[in-house]
Amino acid sequence: MSMHRKWLVASLWLALGTSAMAAEFDTSPPPSKFDVSPLQSDQTYSGFIVTYKNGSSERGNAAAAVQNVGAAAGHAKLGGGASAFARGLNVRYGRKLATGADLVHTDRALSSSEAAALIQQIAADPAVEFVEPEYLLKKVDGIKPAGAATFTVPNDQYYASYQWDYLVPNGASFFDNTLNANVANWGGANIQQAWSLADGTGIVIASLDTGVTNHPDLNLSLANAGYDFISSAAVSGRSTNGRVAGGWDTGDWVTAGQCGAGQPAEDSSWHGTHVFGTAGGEITNNSTGMVGTAFGAQVLPVRVLGHCGGSNADIADAITWASGGSVSGVPANAHPAQVISMSLGGSGKCTSGSVLGQAITGAIGRGATVVVAAGNSNANASNYSPASCAGAVTVAATGITSARAYYSNYGSIVALAAPGGGVYKNDASTGTQATTGFIWSTINAGTTTPTTATYGGMAGTSQATPHVAGVVALMQSYRLALGKSLLSPTQVTSVLKSSATVPNVTPSRTKSIGAGIVNAYAAVQAAGAQP
Predict the structure, then answer these.
(1) Which residues belong to the active site?
(2) Distance in angstroms (rounded) separating the CA atoms of residues 265 and 253
(3) Global pTM value
(4) What does the pLDDT look like over 475-490, one tens digit per residue?
(5) Beta-carbon neighbour count of residue 224 at 10 Å?
(6) How many other CB atoms are there within 10 angstroms of residue 258's CB atom?
(7) I need a surface site. Which of 63, 169, 240, 264 has the fewest CB within 10 A?
(8) Interval 385-441: pLDDT, tens
(9) With the CA atoms of 462, 465, 467 and 468 taken in that order, what torsion angle do they form, in degrees rounded to the nearest 10?
(10) Could you give the angle at the alpha carbon of 412 between the alpha carbons of 489 and 406, nearest 5°?
């Protein structure tokens, strides 16, 4: 199929200050109509997400949308000066997002300043409700141990030796085999005790991440039922653009410079496999390996992160689909999730008009509790997305001492914390790495594509998030066992906060980690006590 048939295209010479097909709009739209906060000076942008007002002709007319964005490009005079005559800017239609927004692409990548100018010009159109760039979010990178231990013959001994995060936070000794010493455990999430009440049966957790790999210690019953929402071949690693069925991780390795000038090469992370196991995917009490939080639940893998990250447009569609909403061109989800876990993020505030904000609001409206990572930048989480999206349960990370991990984001937007690993002895910001400084779960030994299933440690708010997602599944499972209706996402958040453990190490007043550290047993009890 030719490009002319496949795409709606509008060619505008950038020197044009007016368009015969579009009116000149006010060039100072109110800030509430656009968001340029995700733009980074060292990145380029070629995708723009435009939400037209309900009732506008552009809302249901792709050609009109392309025409108006093309006119905005002309008005913005991108490139400037005489050189503008020599360089046309083509605008082509991408697709309609599940939120109702339109994704359009320019034929060349724009600098952050050019993108900002175009966004503001698009927003000046009275028919536009909101406009934002398409940008890549990243997995909230887990910190890996130096010389990390891996296990090729796993068995139950690893629970007792590695998974401090599942125990009661009462100061009991936990032997750290790296330090060769006992460590007081004040940071556990009291998950083991919660298993006396519930195991997650009847609940689906959607894990939106890099996907999952084959592993003998994972419950992969929904792996093929998951979906790969990555639409770009450059990000998915496939030979062509387009989404495919199945939530499998084929690797997210990158070469030097692939994700931008000066960016280093990285091996595949198997990040999605790690958080999948922690949330509840890890088969538990099977004389093999380790354990997962809500091991009786079903975990649905949804691939949204690949090489260099994942698009906010793709992630928004995945949130909608995972929670039971409709996405054009994608089969209906036969296993709608009651809990969505997202250990990913990027710079920029999440506004109600953004596609991530709209998608999360929609998911909550369908009854899904959305749990997200606060981020690993030691900064205020209100400046990161989706951490700052309204209604999301934003999770900070703590270590075995109960102190906030040195890397964890913080602030009033944070609902509570969970074990994410403090990396170093005594949860310090530097020093000797400790076994108890990490969260241990399933990974893969491959450096690019998957090879041998194994186990390993990571630390981050990425690791804290699936603990909370799993606890939510335990809470809702207990409700089902009692013959009660599921709690609403608002009720879930309230219970999580009210039942949280007060940290043994008093948090900084200026770097809040929310209500405390998640306490699975107390949360499940409290959930069951609700009418």
Answers:
(1) 209, 271, 462
(2) 8
(3) 0.88
(4) 999 999 999 999 999 9
(5) 12
(6) 14
(7) 240
(8) 999 999 999 999 999 999 999 999 999 999 999 999 999 999 999 999 999 999 999
(9) 180
(10) 110
